[in-house]
Every structure is written in C-alpha cells, then in structure tokens.
C-alpha cells in the first residue's frame, strides 16, 4: 500500500470527535482600525498580559509556555506587555532590570517597585520587585518541601493589585511608561483574578479578559483575607467573590472580567457541567448564556520543530525514521534501558491527580510484559513520585523515571518516544500531546478537553472514552498492534507530524475579542474618579 493510500485508509477509519463549535464564537468584528494597527501606521493598542509564570524565566507547566508565546504572537497587532512577579529566577537572570516606578501597598499588601525588562523579539516585561514576597527558592507556588507558600494570597494579591494600579485611569495615580498605559488587561488563572475586582471596586471599567487555564486551582482563602487584601466587605456575597464562606480569586476573575476564555472549545463546554465545573458550573453556565465564555485553543511555538531543535541527539524530519530512532536510542541510554525493538512509551507531566498517573502506573506492568518500555519525567505530588520510583525499581532496564524538571530532557523524550501517555482526568488544552505529535510520538489520551480537540483517534493518536483502566488498556493494546504494522504506524506518525497548532490560529479569535472589548480611543467611558488603591 502506498503512503497516501494508508493515510486515506486511516482517515476513513477514524472515529474522532471533530472539534465542536465554540460555545460563544467570537464574532468577526475586526475593523479597519485593527488592521491599521497591524500595519503599524498608527500606534498599536496597548494590552497588559498578567501572569504568574513566563517560560523565559520560570515555568511550572503550560501557563509558562503560553505566557511566553501568546504575547509574542500578538505583538504584530498590539503593543503587548507582560506583568509578572520578580521571582529569584528573574532577579538572577541575564536581563537588566530598569526600575521605573513605585506602586503603593494596600492593607497587608506591601508597596513594591516596578521594573522593566526588554526580552528578545521585542517583548517588554514589567516585573514586581518585592523581595519579601518573591525572592526565595522553590517554585512560584510551593516551597522547597512542596508546601504552598503560606502567604500566597498576599503574593498574588500583590500581583493582581499591581495590574489594577497600572490600568487605573485615576488622574492621581495614572501609570504611564513613556506614554504607554494599558487599554485592556488580559488576566490568567486565579493568581490574577483579583485584578478585575480591584478595578471595579474603584469604579474603573478598563476591559478585562480572564483566561482559565485550569479551573481546579481556585485561590480560596478564609474571610479574614478580605481586610488583609483590602477587598470591600460588600463584595463578600454569593454574587461577588464569596465561595462557600471563602474568598475566591478565581470567582473574582469570572465575576468582574468582561469576558472569560478557556483554552479549548471542549473544556469551555465541560466547565459548565458539574463533572468539570469545580462548583462554579452554575456561574459559568450563566456566563455561557450571556455570551461571556469562549474557548480559544492554545498553539505551540515554532521552537517545537524536530528539524531545528538543538536539544535533540539528532535532528530529523518526517520519513527520516533512522533519525527518529537515533533519538530513541539516546533516550534509552539516558534512562539506562535495555536495547529493544519494542515501542517506547513516555510521560512528560506534572505529577498531579489531574494527569491520571495512577492509570499509567497500573498499566506499566502490562506494557513491559508486552515488550514495551516506559520513560517518565515529572515532579509533583510525593505519593505519585514514590509510586513511580517503585515502578522503576521493579522493572530495571524497562522503566526509567526521572523525578525533576528539565526542558532538554522533555524535548529529547518527545523526539525519542513512540507513544505519549496522557490519561488525564480533565485537560483544559494540553500542550504535551501537541509537542509529542510534532516530534512523531503518538499520544494515547482520554477523550476530554483539549485532548479531544487535538487528537484524531486512529490518525494522529489514540483516544479512549471512559476514564477506566480497561479503556486505557484497550487504547494501549491498539497502539501495540499498530506498532506491529509498520506502514500504518509510519502513516500515523506522518499525520501527527503534519499538524501544526500554530499560535497564528489562536491570534485571530483573541484579536476579535480584544477588539470587541476595547472602546475606540477618544470615546472612552473610563471613570476619572479620584481613587487610591
Ligand atoms: N518534568 C518536566 N520537565 C520538563 N517539562 C515538563 C515537565 N513536566 C511538564 N513539563 C512541560 O510543562 C508543560 C505542561 O503543559 P500542559 O499544557 O500539558 O499541562 P499543565 O497542566 O501544566 O497546564 C495547564 O495550562 C495549560 C496552558 O493553557 C493547558 O494546556 C493545560 O491543559 C492545563 O492543565 C509542557 O510544556 C510540558 O512539556
């Protein structure tokens, strides 16, 4: 059978769910004004992208990747700038920081300095210099022993407050950096949710887009934090940011922002249901009804290219399967695995309940018995880390585990593996499956969220419907069978490598959304009330 005949046969055999329509499609309202901005004949609209991670400095998971790529992808159309905390990794980076302003504190939130860093590709990053909150070892969210920083509410209250202070139109405190002042805030996840609240409580109507990357992390704190964070008592109601007697950063973002997005169309629908809504499904259903909720899929940046990736043992292109095999051999050596002709399965993941590692751990023995091998890189919950270490000890030479975080190793594993296991319980978008596909590793994944939208079952990977050991095992069995049919296997690889989820595709819906929300210059209805937050 020729390659194209195999491809056609595979395409016919697929049972994949096609990406469904967005629950709130963003209407095409881009006017000449935006295109003029794109052509740079008048200044592009200023947008502040507020995030707790940026892969240039620090990345815990997918948010770091998105924050590094999406603002850069939007730079052609907007004067996009990023705001983030000056963690130790930022302070110790090679990039000079120019201190440009001082932001006052509020209640228990300390005052801080605002620095500016110029990153490659013209990306300006504002950093919050507040060593007492951010200059420490550990991750942005956890201390070195894996416990949440006990002052996270204040740390991310500080980030949210800074975003609001920078956007406020108050004549007294109006922020401006050489004429730059944001006309729109793009907030990400619970760590930034209070920003929209701080604006509204001060009568400021600067538009806010709030993107949910993971609804499961909500930033919930006791009512004593109302006064500590300077949140008005009147906001502590079920219609405000109260969530079962606690203050919810996530709910603040949803309630006070103009529009909510999440990172795939399927997840946007899922979070309006009790199974995925984490208790916020009612509110999110209301948002959907009011056309305030949309799904805009993530992309992946151009550095994910097996032909140019400097981290790989051997660059390779589609059909250069010897080149791909050189990477497989390299990964086997990295993890001290035996020489083998069987398939190499991989996990590159945060080791958390969401990712269904319990299913992978339970399937590992059957993978080894069937002649496969497994490599894992990840870090997270100690119980999962220990279970994986035990697995490695039980199957030396067949299972290799690296508890840790390494971009280089992750890329080598995507390039060297045949299959990537992602039995996620839920997956807002998922980037790893897209990286794997680019590098010719076929994802085996639960049909949920962004996984359902980016994997075509039997063509660019394998999907299973029910989150059960049995269904997952069936998908793994199918992968073994395909591995034995070389032509089919290579055809799937080719199909997976051919898809490229470029950020360019996500830029258009974000532009439409920004455009819809930004009031044309000169007719802004911003409150010019004197406020001091
Ligand atoms: N030990 C390790 N070493 C090196 N790299 C590692 C690693 N562990 C994970 N990574 C990398 O971290 C990223 C993880 O991104 P994902 O999107 O797959 O999941 P995450 O749950 O973090 O993101 C959340 O936000 C993103 C962004 O919106 C959504 O796609 C996702 O569904 C949602 O859960 C990938 O780039 C992966 O390669």
Structural notes for this entry:
It holds the Pfam family Glyco_transf_5. This protein is an alpha/beta fold and 533 residues long. It folds into two domains: 31-263 and 505-517, Rossmann fold; 321-501, Glycogen Phosphorylase B (Rossmann fold). It contains 20 helices and 18 strands. It has helices at 3-13, 32-38, 62-74, 88-91, 131-134, 152-167, 194-201, 225-229, 249-256, 265-270, 281-289, 321-334, 357-369, 382-394, 407-416, 432-438, 449-454, 469-484, 486-498, 503-517; strands at 45-50, 78-85, 98-103, 112-119, 123-129, 184-188, 208-212, 220-221, 242-243, 246-248, 259-262, 293-295, 344-351, 373-380, 399-403, 419-422, 442-446, 462-464. Strands 3-4-5-2-1-6-7-11-12 form a nine-stranded mixed beta sheet, with helices on both faces. Helix 13 runs parallel beside helix 14 and helix 13 packs across helix 18 (469-484). Bound molecules: adenosine-5'-diphosphate-glucose. The site of adenosine-5'-diphosphate-glucose has 27 residues, from helix 3, strand 13, strand 14, helix 15 and helix 16.
The strand order across the widest sheet is 3-4-5-2-1-6-7-11-12
Strand content: 15-25%
Compute the number of helices: 20
Approximate helicity band:
25-40%
Distance between the termini: 69 Å
Number of E strands: 18
Rg, Cα atoms, Å: 24 Å
The average pLDDT value, as a whole number, equals: 91
